[in-house]
Amino acid sequence: MWILVLNCGSSSVKFALLRPSSGEQALSGLAERLGSPGARLVLKRGDERSETPHPNASYADTFALLLSELDRLGLREQVTVVGHRVVHGGEKFSAPALIGSSVLASIRACIPLAPLHNPANLAGIEAAQLAFPHVPQVAVFDTAFHQSMPEVAYRYAVPEAWYVQHAVRRYGFHGTSHAYVAQEAARILGRPLTELNLVTAHLGNGCSVAAIAGGRSIDTSMGLTPLEGLVMGTRSGDVDPGLHEYLSRQAGLSLEEITGALNRESGLAGLSGLGGDMRELEQAATAGHAGARLAVSVFVYRLAKTIAAMSVALLTLDALVFTGGIGENSASMRAAVLERLGLLGFRLDHSANEAAVRGRPGNIGATGSLPALVVNTDEERMIAREAEALLNGVRANGVGA
Ligand code: ADP
Question: Ligand 1: does its nearest atom lie under 6 Å from the Cβ of 206?
């Protein structure tokens, strides 16, 4: 079964045509800066890569280009289902959903919870429905995996009316990645996922940690929005809830200005003054840049503290998993985090840590240590797996797609 996976942002579309069983990709790519003069389409097929400018291209143009490419390769008829990444499913979705008018309405109803992401996801779904009118479409939600969190983990200690009337609670994000690496960890450890207690750390431009018991998320560091929790590339993570009032009084900043700065000018970028790219900051820190050193140290300190806090949600801990661009590639970050986590039973195998990079996952725990795994995430493959499983279930139950 070939599955087309789409991740539609406000000005970009990422796509991959793949088989979930093997992970084999027939075609993948990215259309970015849509609607601007710099819009371009990048296509990848095996080792071939092409990049074509398409000034001012829209979603519809992108899908037209994608269709003509699929036709050229004789792949259009092979698409059996389209899987869409959707950021926020609120409390409505704890699993993927076959897209029809009521699912679309529910995704629309979650717009207040994700005002930038859900409208872009919806626009992508609508464009894909026009482009593939006879192909079933499945929504896979970033928040769904964390819907298994118990109330003790998802409620904020705020007036109950805020929860009841305005859905103010913790939701968590990156669910597809946490779920995928948990499955991979079970495979690497050679144990059933249902018997494992894991802490997974997804560390990319956005960062979150999850506590996963028997394959179910029971806590995570992101909350109502993806701003809560860890220090990230340009996001602050946790700050004092009194910060907004203080800054508006002292600096005359508006709520929008403060929220914008917490999302786009904070985190590693805010602390270093150099930007939010971990690889560049590690190089600058090695060269002696004080801001870069501070940014990396705060990132590591807060991450280690959060991993320890997440392990409290589990009765026992069987393994820690690092993933995402930083988790998969930064040996120095992993070493610094494990050094702080000796208390939990972690000891680093230095050479295994240096050897573990993207494409070469492994256990970086020394003999006698709890396993600390480096696992390559693959959100596209997980979305494809979930879309395939849903479609097979729908067909087995005899419900027309
Ligand atoms: P996204 O969350 O946008 O998918 P990624 O998962 O690709 O992003 O992660 C991007 C982050 O990974 C950046 O901070 C980047 O600097 C970092 N990264 C990538 N390679 C390395 C490396 N070799 N060493 C340290 N950090 C790295």
Answer: yes
Is 178 inside a domain boundary? no
Are 238 and 361 contained in the same domain?
yes
Any residues with CB less than 8 A from the CB of 42 and at least 6 apart, and which?
Answer: 29, 30, 31, 32, 49, 50, 51
Range name among 120-134, 214-228, 232-246 with the lowest pLDDT average: 120-134
Residues 347 and 278 in one domain: yes
How far does residue 236's CA lie from ligand 1's centre (Å)?
A: 17
In a domain, 277, yes or no: yes
Residues 294 and 27: their CA atoms lie apart, in Å, by 41
Quick check: is 76 in a domain?
yes
Whether 250 is covered by a domain: the verdict is yes
User: What single letter denotes the amino acid at residue 399?
Assistant: V
Q: In the beta sheet, which residues pair with residue 42? A: 30, 51
- Our answer to whether residue 142 is catalytic in this structure is yes
* Assessment of whether the complete model's pTM goes beyond 0.85: yes
Q: Best of 203, 272, 283, 326 to mutate for ligand 1, by most ligand atoms within 8 A of CB?
A: 326
Q: What is the pLDDT of residues 376-393, one digit of tens each?
A: 999 999 999 999 999 998
List the domain range (segments joined by +) for residue 91.
2-141
CATH number of the domain where residue 212 is located = 3.30.420.40
Are 195 and 134 part of one and the same domain?
no
Q: Does residue 350 share a domain with residue 222? A: yes
Q: Which of 14, 203, 205 to mutate to test the pocket of ligand 1 (most atoms within 8 A of CB)?
A: 205
Q: Is the dihedral of CA 294, 359, 201, 259 positive or negative?
A: positive
Atom 8, ligand 1: residue with shortest CA distance: 204
324 lines ligand 1 (CB under 6 A): yes
Whether 377 lines ligand 1, by a CB cut-off of 6 Å, is no
C-alpha distance from residue 236 to each of 66, 227, 272, 324, 366 (Å): 37, 7, 12, 18, 33
**Are residues 297 and 200 part of one domain?**
yes
User: Does 124 sit in the ligand 1 pocket, CB within 6 Å?
Assistant: no
End-to-end alpha carbon distance in the chain = 16
Asked if residue 372 and residue 241 are part of one domain, the reply reads yes
CA of 297 to the centre of ligand 1 (A): 17
Given 71, 142, 277, 378, which residue is catalytic?
A: 142
Total domain count, the chain: 2
Q: Is the CB of 282 under 6 A from ligand 1?
A: yes
Q: Please give the mean pLDDT across all residues of the chain.
A: 95
Tell me: do 102 and 203 sit in the same domain: no
Q: Is the pLDDT of residue 309 over 50?
A: yes
